[in-house]
Structure of Acetate kinase:
Amino acid sequence: MLNSGSSSLKFAIIDPEQDAPLLIGIAERLGSANADFRMRWRNEEDKRQPCPDADHARVIDQLFQAMHEHGVDATDLTGVGHRVVHGGETFRDSATIDEQVIAKIEQCAKLAPLHNPVNLLGIKAIARKYPDLSQVAVFDTSFHQTLPDYAYTYALPYELYRAHGVRRYGFHGSSHRFVAGRAADLLGKPLKDCNFISVHLGNGCSATAIKGGVSVDTSMGLTPLEGLVMGSRCGDLDPGLILHLTQTLNYTPDQLSHMLNKESGLLGVSEVSNDMRELLRLSEEGHHQAALAIEIFCYRLAKMIAGYYLATAPLDAVIFTGGIGENAAPIRARACAWLKPLGVYMDEEANRRHGEENQRRISKDDSLNIMVVPTNEELLIARDTLALIRRRK
Ligand code: ADP
């Protein structure tokens, strides 16, 4: 599995039949003098290697060299699955990569100019070096291609959609799909009969309404800025505010982009951190803005869940996932406190333990079911990769 970002590359070797990956690692600060490369083989210590000025292709070389030293070569791999951010309306499912698919991913790059081109760097580097290795693209957006038009169309001149594809696409699809599948298994019900609201709360945050096993609404939009409050992204805003900032306060597009993506959300309100652990600690100590940032985060999350209740009832479960969703019991408790009118009653002890091992339930027996389900996007990418390669053979 490869996940290429602008200055990072995450990688893992996964056997979809096994829980733990054989290898997991990340190269960071690519293109800079202090780029480095960290990896961990199963049952071994972390290894760190500097790779000054390395680009994606060089990191991939270094990765295959390290694999070779561990007795794993390209011929031992069934295939390579890539995370690709934007599949536009072209990709409703994961796709086996060929020249045509690469061209289509390039076309979708107009919707994600910062992401798709770097995702393609990894794909092209592997294709050049190992042309016989099958590759699969797994898109962040494809799970949400089932949204009905009334959920994905912005109330803007329709021409913007027709001519430029301006609509809501949604992201984090692999995570929402993974936890929905896992929750269905835990409930012993076919996914197609399940209605869920899943909330992925990491640095980026999104909620998805899942009806009959498919996504029917999601909080991120044309870009990952829309929706919930995130670590440093603002989420929903008055669009008039953008006009105000540009016309009255003379913000340039670059300044706006930086502010809305990197200086807002939890960081913007608290003025101290985008990290929920840190904010919880500070709010315990009486830091007013940390507490306010948390309060806004939880209230906005609860409003989103309540809105999606309309689209999904009768609901099988609300699923919490992502770094915050899986680990931050006080955040789940605060968001759920708002949801009492929907029949949500937390089991505080189960919440503190982040859910029972077998059922992952953190609500009382007479409550709407609230679950904590750890996500595993890498495993989903590996499963899709294997399934598509098997189908072709
Ligand atoms: P990413 O979206 O980058 O993959 P993660 O899913 O790892 O991020 O989530 C990162 C967030 O999870 C951070 O805000 C971090 O503080 C929060 N987090 C992780 N562990 C805990 C914890 N035990 N309590 C509260 N927040 C936590």
